[in-house]
Structure formats: structure tokens, C-alpha cells
Amino acid sequence: MDGNLNALTTIFTEFYYWVTVVFMFMIHVGFCLYEVSASRHKNHMHTLMKNVMIIPLVTITFFLFGWWIYWTFPNFPLFGTLDLDAGQNNLPWSETMGPNLNDHITGVFWAAFLLFSWTAASIVSGSVIERIRSSAFWIHAILIGSVFWVIDAAWGWHYAGWMVRELGYHDAYASGVIHAIAGGYALGVLTVLGPRIGKFDSNGVARIIPPHNPWLLAVGIFMIYTGFWGFYAACNVPIISPALIDGQITGATWTATNIYLTPTTLSAITFNFLMSLSGGLMAAYIVSKGDAFWTFSGGLAGIITASAGNDLYHPIQALLIGAVGVICAYKLHYYVERKFKIDDAVGAVAVHGYAGVVGLIISGFVLWGVPSSPFEGYAVINPIGQLLGALIMFGLLGFLPAYLVTRVQSSLGILRIPETIELKGLDFVENQSRELAEEHLVAIEKERSVRDQTQS
Amino acid sequence: MSTIGYQQWAVDLAQVTSIYPFQGSEIVMTIIGVVFWLGWHKVQFNHENQQMNGASEVENTPSDTS
What we know:
- The complex is a heterodimer of chains A (456) and B (66).
- By secondary structure, chain A is mainly α.
- Chain A has helices at 4-38, 44-52, 54-72, 84-88, 106-127, 134-156, 162-167, 175-193, 214-234, 242-245, 266-287, 292-306, 315-340, 348-366, 383-411, 419-424, 426-430, 432-455; strands spanning 237-240, 255-257, 263-264.
- Chain B is an all-alpha fold and 66 residues long.
- Chain B has a domain at 24-60.
- The interface between A and B is medium-sized, with 35 and 30 residues.
């Protein structure tokens, strides 16, 4: 770092991303609380363990190959070969993938993307609770967290990605690249995995399995809101000069940008984060008739719907788009549940998947004609590009690989827990000795009670 | 001797790059990392199988409370 301004910019950027990473940790804590609260008592610790172990498994695989995929896949395979030059500095054995005084940014930038990876896997985790084997889920966590979402990020969330250049794809805060893909992936797993025992009655009518602890569930989702705010900041480049962007922007005014290096401000995304949250909450309250679970989740779905264009929307637009997305997600959730008997335990497919898809489609119309990139030769944002983008995220990189891998797991008999254990509860497996001891004591007490009654 | 290649900090930091121990063995460390990761899955899968089978057997065994 030579020169004071260069040094300050470097240290500020390093610290900026580091803070966002710490904020985003709250997303994972929130997901854990939310998921455990939605599960029944007999499955608590297993549910928590399933989600917590996402952290090390996605981290190690994102270090080994996920980060490299992001840098090498922007044009692969449709519009070019792997960009091995860009990937060179991001291989696990690269000198910059460790303490290095000539590189102050790779670690925190890597971590910011890694936290997105945890989120993608965690979204899937909630929907499959109480019947999937942990070993089977953790394979999916690695696939969505360190492979498929990273490919979609390289294609559509990279300043040189082919979807941005050819389709004009715009997804500033990840309606599609995190949420639609994770929702589609969850639906792919659920289609094969099947519902929890007792979810549907003999006539195929869905029963409500309420969260065992609504209050803790609310705390969890409030933590997700908070972490999501950090996620928004992490999606921005905090400050950069037009000369460094080296695109079409003229003059010397430094700016914040989104991931595509097109200008926005922290002020803009703060307006829109809060307004889309509000639109989501208000619409969810009305459409669910004041149901707490859906109202709180609706706030999240509102943000997710508006996220594709929240770098540019007017706050009132963000409010209304958030509201529309929530209504669509809520209606689609119950339609799919009725029609296809899909048991999405936490509504993740709706809140993340359907809301993300709706958000991408709406943004294609509202931002029609807006430049998708500061560089020459890129398509402008348009409805067709956004629709194709939504299909690629939700269907091609989300639903399809999840469905295929889950089918393989099912055919090998390593997907679902045995029925007896599902009825007894997964914590029984881990806490077998204690449970057996307790049952034994209860049985002795019952026997003694019967004996006393007989003698008297 | 120093595992990071510097025995004192009397250097121009502009010339310093990596400062982790055992530089030059990055590929070996990566292989160890891969083995650790895949080995964990194998151990976990076997452990889970034992737990599932054990729990199913216990569930199917008539309890003796005498």
C-alpha cells in the first residue's frame, strides 16, 4: 500500500467487508433459532445440529473449490472456457489464500461470499426438517453452498458474467442468485423426500404442524432481518473511482456501486431495505389474516422480492413490490401444498423461492432499459432477460440438480430416516440411553402404582 | 530458523508477501484438507448408520420392566 489515500481506501474496504461478515453471522443464528422453533420437541437437537454443521462443511468446501468456481465460471460453458487466469489467485494453494501482506482483501471478500453460501444452504435446511438424514442433507448443503449458487453468482452476479452481458440480468441484492435458487433447490429435495408423517390426513388435506415456540421463532426471524441488512452492505463495493472501474462512467466522482460496478448509494439501499420490509409485513398481515408466522416471514419475503432492484427503486416502489411478492408467495405456497402434497416445514420455498422469482420478473419491467453494466456492449435490463434469469436460478441450477441428487440418495436408501425413528423423534437416536432410562423409570413407577392399588 | 521465513521484522513491508508457516507446501496442505473433509463424511456416515440401526433395534425389542 503506497500513498495515504490508497492505504486508507484499502483498509476501509477491508474493514467494511469484515463488519458485514460479522453482521451476516446473525442470519445463520436466526435461521437456527427459526428452524429449531418450528420443529417439535422430539427433534430439537438434531435440527440444530443439522443446521450448525453447515458452517464447517460449507466453509471448508468453499475454501477448497467454491471460491475458485466464482472466478473461473463467468463465461463457462456457453460463452467461453474456464477463466483459469482469474482463478489462479483463488485456488486453495494460492499465496493470496492466506496471511499475505500484499493482499488485504481476498480473505474478507471470500468470507462475505462464504456467508452467502451458508445462507443458501440454511434456507434449504429449514424446509426438510424432521425426516431427512443429516448425512444426506449435508451433501446438499455443500452442493447448494459451494457449487450451484456459486455457479449462478459467476454467471449472473459478477461484473463480467455472461447473464449480465447477454441477458441484461440484474439482481443487485440476490432475489435470484441466493433466494430463488435456494427455494428451487429446496423444492427439488422436497419433491423426492416427501412429507412428514401425519402432515396430510387420509383425504390428502394438509394438517397444520405449528411451531412449538412461536416467540423464539420471532426472535430468529428478527435476527435474520438484522443480518440481511449486513448482507445488503456486503453486496456493495463501498467506494471506488471511475478510473478504477475503467468503464463508461466519466468524471472523477467516486461512488459506491453494486456487484456489477453500476452506481448506487448506501442511502438508497437503506431506504429500500426498510420500505420493502414494511411492504412485506403489511401485505402478509392482511393476506394471512394476522397469522404471526406468515406476517414475520412476509417481512423477509418483501425484502427478497424487491432485492433485485433495490439499488435503484424509489422507496414507494420497493414498498409495493415487496407487498406484491408476499401475496404471490403466500398463495403459491398453499396452492403447491394442496396440489402436489409438498410439506415445506418453514415455508422456505415460498418466502425465498417464489418471492425471488416474482421479484426478478417485476424488476424486468420496472427497470426496463436501464444499463446493466458500466461497460460497453452489455444488454440493458429487460423483462425477457429477467424471466430467463429466474428460470435459470430457480429451475436449472436450483430444482433440477436437487431433484436428481435426491433421487439418487433415495434409490440408495440413504435419504430418509426410518419410520420408527421419525415417530419416536430424532433426538431419541442421539439421546437413546437417557430416553431409555427415563422410560424404564416411568414403567417401574407404573408397575409399583398398579401393585399398590391391587394390595390396597 | 523461522517457519515463516523471517527471523526479524527489520524488512521493507512492501517486499513481504506470505507470512504463514511452511510456505511452499500449500498443495500438500490442500491435500491434507481434502482428506480431512472426506474422511469426516465417512466417519459421520458410519456413525449415523450405527445410530439409526441401533435405535431401530431398540424400538423393535420388547421392553423388560421386571
